[in-house]
Structure formats: C-alpha cells, structure tokens
Write a structure and sequence with these properties.
alpha+beta, Double Stranded RNA Binding Domain, 2 helices
C-alpha cells in the first residue's frame, strides 16, 4: 500500500503517494527538483511557478538524456573493447 509523503517545492507543501520502499528516492528526487527550481527562479524571478517548474523539469530531462547518451557511448565502447580482446585471445 502506498504511503503519503510530504514534500516541499519552492515553499509549497505537497502530499504525494509513494510506493513502499521508495520514500528515500522520492525525497531525493524532490530535493533535486527543488534545487533546480530555485536556480530557475533566481535567473527568472518574474516567472510564474508553473513556468519555473516546467523549465526546471526540462533542464533535468536534458541532463538525464545527456547522461543516458554518455552511458550508451560508454557501453558501446566497452562492447567494442571486449570484442577486440576476445579476438586477440583467439588469434
């Protein structure tokens, strides 16, 4: 059964449902989002709360895709190196 967690984003308190065992990850995610929202708000103090949240979410999504792309490149490089090692051992 889900538990209720209280998180705070830009001084706004929200109650959210959280799956069992995921509270720590959800709270960490909320902290990350809050930090990003604070950065956006500092750069654009006149932006609405919705715009701050959307820009913060977009920034986090971009960073996530960058990490994913780098991970994919690293994984491909490791695979190629593994194949080269295997070939060298066979020769």
């Amino acid at each position: 059964m889900n538990q209720e967690l209280t998180i705070t984003l830009l001084d706004k308190t929200l109650s959210v449902a959280c799956p069992p065992g995921q509270a720590e990850a959800l709270l960490e995610s909320a902290q990350l989002l809050n930090k990003q929202m604070l950065k956006v708000q500092q750069k654009k103090p006149s932006a609405s709360l919705l715009n701050v949240a959307l820009i913060a979410a977009l920034n986090i999504s971009y960073e996530m895709l960058e990490y994913k792309n780098q991970h994919d490149v690293n994984e491909q490089s490791i695979s190629q190196l593994s194949e080269l090692v295997s070939q060298a051992l066979l020769d």
